[in-house]
Design goal:
The protein is about 65% helix and about 15% strand. By secondary structure, the protein is of the alpha+beta class. The protein folds into 3 domains: about 1-80; about 85-130; about 130-203, Head domain of nucleotide exchange factor GrpE (Nucleotide Exchange Factor Grpe, Chain A, domain 2).
Length: about 200
C-alpha cells in the first residue's frame, strides 16, 4: 500500500516537473518571439524616422531655394523700380539737348544759357539715379549697346566702327535702358580695282 502511494506520488511529481519544463520552454519561446518582434518594430521605426528626416531636409532645402529666389526677385524689383519714370524723363532730356543744339549763337545767348542750366540739372538728376549715357562714338559696334541704322563706307574709321550717333543710348545701373542708334562704318571698295578685275575677266 505504501509502495503504491509512493509510486503515485513520484508519478505526480514527474508529471508536474514535465509540465514545468514545457511551461519554461513556452515562456522562453514567447520571450524570444517578443524580443524578435520588438527588434523588428524598432528597425521599422528607425527606417520611418530616417525617411521623415530625409523628407524634412529636402523640404528645408526647397524652402531655402524659394526664399533666395524670392529675395533676388524683390531686390531686382527695388533695383529697377524707377525704370518707367526714367524712360519718360529721358524723352524730355533728349528734347532739351536737341533744343540747345539748334539755338543760334548771336541772338539766343540768354535762352541758350537758361536751357543749358536746365539740361545740366537734368543730367545730374539722372546721374544720381544711376543713369549713364552710353559712350558710342568711335567705338566698335556692339549689338548689346548699339542699334545700327545703316552702314557707310569710311576710310577714316576701321570697319564696324560707330561713326555717327543719331540717338544717344543710356544705361540704368548695369542694364541697357535704351540702345544708342548709330551709323556704322564699312570697308571702302575701290571702284578702279573692280573695273580692272572686270576688264581682266573679259579678256
Amino acid at each position: 500500500m505504501k509502495k503504491k502511494k509512493r509510486e503515485e506520488k513520484e508519478k505526480i511529481e514527474v508529471e508536474i516537473k514535465e509540465e514545468e519544463e514545457v511551461e519554461a520552454e513556452e515562456t522562453s519561446t514567447n520571450k524570444d518571439d517578443a524580443q524578435s518582434g520588438l527588434k523588428e518594430r524598432v528597425e521599422e521605426l528607425e527606417k520611418t524616422n530616417e525617411e521623415l528626416n530625409d523628407r524634412l531636409i529636402r523640404r528645408l532645402a526647397e524652402f531655402e531655394n524659394y526664399k533666395k529666389r524670392t529675395d533676388l526677385e524683390k531686390s531686382e524689383i527695388f533695383k529697377y523700380a524707377a525704370e518707367s519714370f526714367i524712360i519718360k524723363v529721358l524723352a524730355v532730356h533728349e528734347d532739351l539737348q536737341r533744343s540747345l543744339s539748334h539755338i543760334e549763337e548771336e541772338n539766343k545767348d540768354a535762352l541758350r544759357d537758361g536751357l543749358k542750366l536746365v539740361a545740366e540739372k537734368f543730367t545730374q538728376i539722372l546721374d544720381e539715379q544711376g543713369v549713364k549715357k552710353i559712350d558710342a562714338m568711335g567705338k566698335e559696334f556692339d549689338h548689346e549697346y548699339h542699334e545700327a541704322l545703316l552702314q557707310q563706307p569710311s576710310k577714316k574709321f576701321p570697319p564696324n566702327t560707330v561713326i555717327n550717333e543719331v540717338e544717344s543710348g543710356y544705361m540704368y545701373k548695369d542694364k541697357v535702358l535704351k540702345h544708342a542708334k548709330v551709323i556704322v562704318s564699312q570697308e571702302v571698295v575701290d571702284d578702279t580695282e573692280e573695273i580692272k578685275e572686270e576688264n581682266n575677266s573679259g579678256e
